[in-house]
Write the structure tokens for this entry.
Amino acid sequence: MAGGLNSTSAALLGLLHDGPLTGGQLVAHAGQRLGPLWTLTRSQVYRELPVLAAHGYLRAGKPGPRASSAYTISAAGKRAFATWLASPLEADHPRNPLLLRLGFGSYHSKTDLHRLVDQARGQHEASLAIHKETVNKLKKVDPDPYALASAEFGVAYEKALLRWLETIPT
Amino acid sequence: MAGGLNSTSAALLGLLHDGPLTGGQLVAHAGQRLGPLWTLTRSQVYRELPVLAAHGYLRAGKPGPRASSAYTISAAGKRAFATWLASPLEADHPRNPLLLRLGFGSYHSKTDLHRLVDQARGQHEASLAIHKETVNKLKKVDPDPYALASAEFGVAYEKALLRWLETIPT
DNA sequence: ATAGCCATGTAACCAGTTACATGATTTC
DNA sequence: GAAATCATGTAACTGGTTACATGGCTAT
């Protein structure tokens, strides 16, 4: 972490801009605020927190119940986060299990291929519904236009995938 | 690997259906045939090959230059691959660095936000061009409709993303 | 024949997932 | 106040990336 933050750490620092949080609270906030856009597991959070503290980006408060302490972001932490925000965008490497299977399409039996497409359709229709709901909720409640844009990406992605799905030769 | 194959191993077994290949050749074939649909590094290949051999899915030939031997898929290997093909589709968990940054959109300066969007546009226009070219090549040369469908997914994905990009509030 | 280059294989590292142990809290 | 449940923190493991060492090939 000499040069820059990894995405997980950056996400944590970002979340802590709104005030001190404990590990558990961070996990919860990440789930809500970053939601399906970027996942973050408990293990990752608890692994990164001490590292960030060691770098002086965070300061741990007094341990509460279960040795859980709230972490506060420092000035250095805010600086590191700002640097990350301005740093070059990492490449997007989508890795879709459906595509791998489809790459071997000619080895599939007709039935297996149909099942594969059906499964994919089911999964992505479900995701589409979730993203649509998120969009609707945000439109009513939250004024942050970027959270809305992210959710709309989800909708666009799922729609594009579903449309493409129907073009697969059977 | 008691129950099923992981995606990497499955990809290797799939590639070996066309005949014995060495580690290096497998890497090359993966790059060509699976291309951007599913990446596979040398390290992964060399790690999985002995494991697959130990399971009896592959049989190593006589070592050639540089201790590289061609691996042949066994009947058990073909069975394992067929089982994998028919097994339930894993979920698709896209994880897009752009979305994470955008999730913190309100912390961006206007200039940084513009730069972010510009970078993303550049990256995805480049990807779109590559996928389009792949589609064109395949249309002329390769008769496999599934390879074509995969490449067309690439095009659809990039187009959807680029269209969405322009809707981001500046 | 040698120098430089490329391909091959290895190893160390980092990120992400799953599964577990145990401390707190609620409920009866 | 005991039992069941839930949240918290840890640890082990798997998958993926990066960086390195060295064998073999090519060109002069």
